[in-house]
Amino acid sequence: MIVRSAPAVAALALVLGGCATSTATPPSATSTSTSTSTSTSTSRQDREHQVQVLKADCMKGKGFRYVPFVYPDTPPSEEDRRLQSGDYEADKAYRAKYGFGISSILVYRDELPGSVTPPENPNHAIRNDLSDTQQKAYAKASDTCEAQSIKKVTGMDVTSAHDHGLKVNVLISRRMRSEVDGDPQLVRLASAMADCMVAKGHRMTSAKPLDVAKWGGAMIGRELHELARKDDESIPAYDPDNDSGYLPKLSPAEARRFLDREIRLALDDLECGKDFYRVYRPKAEKIAAEVGERYGL
User: Which terminus, N or C, of the chain has the lesser number of Cβ atoms within 10 Å?
Assistant: First the structure.
């Protein structure tokens, strides 16, 4: 049976194209910008701490205890940096095992590169000690207080932390559409990549750089999302602007078959796009880092 999961197809992974370089942390700057990456991470965590403090005050006013809590950030590994820079050999090794890094979540789960077991959020225990009725009120207050706190810190109108993440992803996608699709070198390289993929028997609906970078991961993500929706009508339609979705519950054999197909697709994508990704990935990572620095948590 397919059951609803948390949104698991990370929008940044698909917008950046190629593969998901980390399942634990947002993309950082390129491998040549380590100091910038550290600064961006610190600024983002500072903002998140501000949000948490404001949320705790708001929750107290609504009669609930809340402990300000920020998950620790994990710096990118050397493998992450190589992937983010468009390194062909690193990308090939990753894709040979994880594909685009989407259905592999169902096969390997915590074994994905960059995955870490985060510390327990103390607020989970606080919520779980409440009655069912109190938990519903707590959840409503939590979303309201988080939205208000995010508005104060980032200036963004959101309904929840999840909504904030989706809106940041839309901002990244819009900037990528403008700067990536307007880059003459990437336009030329994307056209060559699309021609190569068609020659391999794949159906390409666009040769624009961002579409070419996203198409494989977005296709897999959409298919998994639609499987999840078949068993849970409350799941919203797949949103191509966010490239985020839900993962279904599959048997180990089903997940493995899905991943094997994804791996074949991802390797074809890389072979046709090795010149494209070498230019595209650093540019995409830089855009994501800059938008995250301004609006992210």
Answer: N
pLDDT digits (tens, 9 = 90+) for 92-113: 999 999 999 999 999 987 666 5
pLDDT at 8 over 50: no
Residues 6+ apart with CB under 8 A from 297: 44, 47, 48, 51, 150, 153, 154, 161, 164
74 confidence band (pLDDT: 50, 70, 90): confident
pTM here is 0.75
Count of other CB atoms within 10 angstroms of residue 287: 21
Q: Widest CA span of the chain, in angstroms? A: 63
Of 76, 56, 72, whose CA–CA distance to 64 is shortest? Answer: 56
The single-letter code of the amino acid at 61 is: G
Q: Residue 243 — pLDDT band, cuts 50, 70, 90? A: low
Dist CA 32 CA 50 (whole Å): 30
